[in-house]
Amino acid sequence: MNIKSLLLGSAAAVVAGSAQAADAIVVAEPEPMEYVRICDTYGTGFFYIPGTETCLKIGGYVRYEMRYRDRDGDPDYRFSKFARFSPTFDARSSTEWGTLRSFGQVFFNWGSGNISGDGNSTALEHAYISLENGPHLFLVGKTDTPFHAAHLGGPNVGGIFETRGDNADNNDTNTGVVYYTFAPGNGLSLTLGAVENTGNTEFEPNVEAVVRYSQGWGLLVGAAGYDNEVDEWGAKVAGELTFNPVTVGLQVQYGSDASSAYGARYVDGVFGSNLTSEWSVAGYARAKLVDTLGAKLQVQWFDGVGGFDDAWQITGGLDWAPVTGLNIIPEVRYTKADLLGGGDVEAWEGRLRFQRSF
After folding, report:
1. What is the DSSP-derived secondary structure letter of residue 38?
2. More confident residue, 300 or 33
3. Of 31, 53, 87, 301, which residue is 20 to 30 A from 232 by alpha carbon distance?
4. What is the CATH number of the domain that holds 222?
5. Residue 99 belongs to domain spanning
6. What is the C-alpha to C-alpha distance for residues 213 and 358, in angstroms, rounded to an integer?
């Protein structure tokens, strides 16, 4: 055998080995592309998370405000700016136990020259899980308590200033909750819940109950709560009537101790702090002037607490939606407090809000 034969044989062996090695390599086929599917089971904005049967909606809003306050006793008026980005995440799926839902909302706040105390901060506003099957709803997590949510038509009755008659600066109004709601139909619902008492390290939850009846003509709400930590209680009743395009409402609230979780909130523009009282009465009216413009007016009275005998607040404002998703809301509030020693003090406040919701 000569050298030429050896070289040819070696080359043939190498080629054969390479061919066998190439045959051993398996190239994976590309996975078929799965497009995002629309989920219309739970309303608009939901889509299926790829590879699952869970529907997800991502929403929220961006807000910017300019704020003004002129108060008796201050050397000059105060002006501040405030911004917030608040994303929301709503995931739902159908199970053999009913609709399983999880919801989260975060506040990213920025403030400059604050009046109200909203500074640079991040807060988890809502984080809860619920299971709904027919008339039954079970919820656990962090959110508004049943008593706090039982307002005339829902939260934020007073608009920007939120003069809604609750001790809303008390942590017990948005905290850990476990509650059950039974809604047999015809606009009636009953809620019973245990609410975390944030002022106590022991397991002593507050107990709250709400009855709500809603119809086309309006709604009726009754709520009661027991503050386990201080052994005090509170209750409120509210009613609302709708005469298109005008809606009017009235709410009366009582707390056996003003400082408990169920004291009536006094949003103070006079003393520079938030106070609470035992009794409060609030009435309001709102009207849809045209398709893109609404107006509202609210009057609220508080009985005496702290250094005043009683107090009045009047709030008025407009809500303009020039395009879909954009609201421009100017509001003005006047506060007058009668002092225990005689005399009174007054304050004027104003806010202009721009909000883009998505």
Report:
1. B
2. 300
3. 301
4. 2.40.160.10
5. 34-357
6. 30
